[in-house]
Amino acid sequence: MTIKRITVVGAGVMGRGIAYVSALSSFETTLVDISQQQLKAALENMKLLAEKAVAKKKLSKEQSSNLFNNLHTSLDLQAVVKETDFVIEAVPEKRELKKQVLETIDQYAPNHIIIASNTSTISPTELGSYTTRPNQVAAMHFFNPVHRMRLVEIVKGLETAPETVHIIREVAEQMGKETVEVKEFPGFVTSRISAMVGNEAFYMLQEGVASAEDIDKAIKLGLNYPMGPLELGDLVGLDTRLNNLKYLHETLGEKFRPAPLLEQYVKAGRLGRKTGRGVYEYTNEGERIPK
Ligand SMILES: NC(=O)c1ccc[n+]([C@@H]2O[C@H](COP(=O)([O-])OP(=O)(O)OC[C@H]3O[C@@H](n4cnc5c(N)ncnc54)[C@H](O)[C@@H]3O)[C@@H](O)[C@H]2O)c1
Known about the structure:
Layout: E1 5-9, H1 13-24, E2 28-32, H2 36-55, H3 61-70, E3 71-74, H4 77-81, E4 86-89, H5 95-108, E5 114-117, H6 124-129, E6 137-141, E7 151-156, H7 162-174, E8 178-182, H8 190-207, H9 212-223, H10 229-236, H11 238-252, H12 260-267
Parallel strand pairs: 1-2, 1-4, 2-3, 4-5, 5-6, 7-8
Antiparallel strand pairs: 6-7
Helix pairs in contact: 1-2, 8-10, 8-11
């Protein structure tokens, strides 16, 4: 099967990145959200990204204009999925919400469609059970920022057909990504480790073991991580991190109990870069404000 048209559902941190890479890779791409404001912000964000890439000569002007010719936005999921080959769901990590979105896709999409979820933790078998075609559903887990991170984790559910995995791998490769196939287990490989490290860093911050800057510096320079766990949390979104931890706590037990300080930050609306404040503070352009 040849994939030509891709629909990305959710225009947040991940959806906009996936749509950018998808349109850049010549897929006719439609980004869908329930919020016009999010779609507008996503487009502005993608334009800025492309401008920077053109200025740095990582992208030609022609590639940039093709990208935006291939990219569309919509608030009408029902209409868009009728005309698509491949859906990537990237709405928040809440099972009820994913269920509702997958049911809608299932109701209106053509028979041949592949339904991939960018979930960080949730079982693709469970996600597949929300549709009448679990053989065409799997997790396709991208990383943030999508245009820079090379990996896609592919996780198949109990009923996922080998052909579905094959098509997802081909789409990921056309987007310039490397893939790994992971057995279904909560948090797969990467989210499980990342959530554990990120949560532990929050416990340390709460306990006053060191300042946020020093925790991040220690992990970067001492353990050779490219980013500190707290700055990574701000990039991921602290609400997203908390949702992942809640799911892992529920499925894998006590060792994933979210740090109370993380819960407090989320309650206070300190969600990270996307709200301008998380562990650190950011300008409107997303630059970190030094303390
Ligand atoms: N943030 C990360 O670093 C990261 C990395 C890998 C995977 N993920 C996963 O990607 C998914 C999305 O995370 P995110 O960080 O982009 O979330 P986000 O909160 O930044 O964005 C979610 C978007 O979905 C939209 N939305 C909500 N309900 C919708 C609906 N019914 N239909 C269409 N759009 C809807 C929201 O308006 C918002 O724009 C989650 O499953 C998350 O676990 C996140």
